[in-house]
Design a protein that fits this description.
Largest sheet: 2 strands, parallel
Strand content: under 5%
Number of domains: 1
Strand order of the largest sheet: 1-2
Number of strands: 2
Helix content: 55-70%
Radius of gyration: 20 Å
Length: about 180
């Protein structure tokens, strides 16, 4: 099982790096598109009708990929006031329980998101005329990436890798 945990951890790290690259690219494209839209609309008086739509769809992808990266890096915000007061053994059990509950929730999000994407696959976007499956797929893709990371985390709790630092409940915390 440690081999599976190690392989999944490597896969998650590779996906994190790919997602980071995609996030940089998406951010750059969004910035250029919005800047050009402002210049063309207010200075040249020739607006791009598709720019706002593309920026909106890219923002959805940015949010879902960013959520995966934040989860992988332990940067989601959390309130740890009560968790920190638990004994370490209870803290680890609570972490696994929270991860399992989150996997269940994200499983529903991924399944319903995929169903919605397929349902809307024949619909075209108003300005760009692209199939709406592209923006809708951000939700199941992002949720699936987060599920993979959480499953890796749960396996890591039961089959820790040598030299791996123990996972914390959350890295970015607000103490009450």
């Amino acid at each position: 099982m440690r081999g599976i945990t190690k392989a999944m951890s490597r896969l998650c790290e590779l996906l994190r790096k790919v997602s980071m690259g995609a996030l940089v690219l998406i951010g750059a494209v969004m910035s250029v598109i919005v800047l050009l839209q402002i210049i063309f609309r207010f200075l040249i008086h020739v607006p791009f009708p598709w720019s706002e739509e593309l920026a909106r769809y890219l923002m959805i992808w940015m949010g879902m990929l960013g959520a995966f990266v934040a989860l992988r890096e332990g940067r989601h915000i959390g309130v740890s006031l009560f968790v920190d007061r638990l004994p370490p053994a209870w803290r680890a059990k609570l972490l696994v329980l929270v991860q399992l509950a989150t996997i269940g929730f994200l499983g529903i999000v991924a399944k319903q998101g995929f169903s919605l994407a397929l349902f809307n696959s024949s619909q075209l976007s108003p300005a760009m005329q692209i199939p709406m499956i592209f923006p809708y797929m951000a939700v199941p893709v992002g949720a699936s990436l987060m599920i993979l990371e959480l499953v890796t985390g749960v396996l890591g709790e039961f089959f820790p890798l040598e030299g791996a630092r123990p996972r914390r409940f959350t890295a970015a915390t607000l103490d009450g």
